Amino acid sequence: MTDIDGNASAAEGGFLVAALYHFTPLPHFEALQQKIQAACDDHGVKGTLLLADEGINGTIAGSDAGIAAVLAFLRAIPEFADLEHKESRAAKKPFHRMKVRLKKEIVTMGVEGIDPLESVGTYVDPGEWNALISDPDTIVIDTRNDYETAIGTFRGALDPHTKTFREFPDWVRNNTGLHNKPKIAMYCTGGIRCEKASAFMKAEGFEDVFHLKGGILKYLEEVPEEESLWNGACFVFDERVSVTHGLRQGDHTLCRACRHPLTRREVADPAFEDGVSCPYCINERSADDRARYRERQKQVALAKKRGKAHIGR
């Protein structure tokens, strides 16, 4: 049951969050946009789904019944019959609107001819991941971007310090040391980025390429904290900002100006102004930018007083 603002009842344990992706030839993806949007709207589901001729990717949230209905709708589409998803919970609404977007790629690498359906690395279940990344013959690579790796990563992993996934291919090509060990193990948030990354590395001549099945989220869900080799929190692309072991919500705050996750210490920094600036962007934005952000934040505060979500947030 939900209230008029879409908040799930406490009895239901908050909102159900479903992260999903599926690579499949989808030449008619444009025709699906409005149908999927309508299905989500009809069941009160919010979030973002990306469609391209290579498949679907995204995260949605809503009531248990709403998510079940949307997933059933998606799996009734023949190309999505084998669609898998990962579930977690959120106490507060993770998204404020529903967007179904048409894209060139469902995860943007920008390299032509990379198809995970043709060539991809070996999947490694979370229960077997520790042994692989502890092997001295393995190089472990975090394929996420710098603002994500800043708050958590696997022990001993290489951080490419990329701003976007488009930078990953050049990072690989410029790091000849990656050929020094026989095994490459990669991971990302939910698994989709590694599908592309492992396919790319196979095309670049790497043979023993592995990636974490289900990504960090599945690892944090299944591997007991006392056995975990994960340090920190995992950034997620919704209002929770981060999750930790057991997929519990973390204690990070999102800078609404630059979208960087912030620790409690960074929120206490004089450079932080809610909705306006943080230590990461205080010197990267102009006074005019900050003036616009303050006005936007004022509208957010007014909407909150009225018990509404500011849709532009």
Order of helical and strand elements: EHEEHEEEHEHEHEHEHEEEEEHH
The tally of strands reads 15
Mean pLDDT: 92
Structural class: alpha/beta
Main sheet attributes: strand count, strand direction, barrel closure: 5 strands, mixed
Q: Uncertain segments of ≥5 residues (pLDDT<50)?
A: 1-12
Task: State the helix count.
Answer: 9
% residues in beta strands: 15-25%
Radius of gyration: 20 Å
Helix coverage percent of residues?
A: 25-40%
End-to-end CA span: 25 Å
> Strand arrangement, largest sheet?
4-1-3-2-5
Instruction: Name the shape in a single word.
Output: globular
In words, what does this structure look like?
This protein is an alpha/beta fold and 313 residues long. Helices cover 28% and strands 22% of the residues. The chain contains nine helices and 15 strands. The protein has helices at residues 29-42, 64-75, 126-134, 146-149, 168-173, 192-203, 215-222, 264-267, 287-305, and strands at residues 15-23, 46-52, 55-62, 84-90, 98-102, 122-124, 138-142, 152-154, 183-187, 208-212, 230-232, 234-235, 242-243, 253-254, 261-262. Strands 4-1-3-2-5 form a five-stranded mixed sheet. Strands 6-10-9-7 form a four-stranded parallel sheet. A two-stranded antiparallel sheet has the order 8-11. A hairpin with a 2-residue loop joins strand 2 (46-52) and strand 3. The longest helix is centred in the last third of the chain and has 19 residues, at 287-305. Residues 1-12 have low confidence and may be disordered.
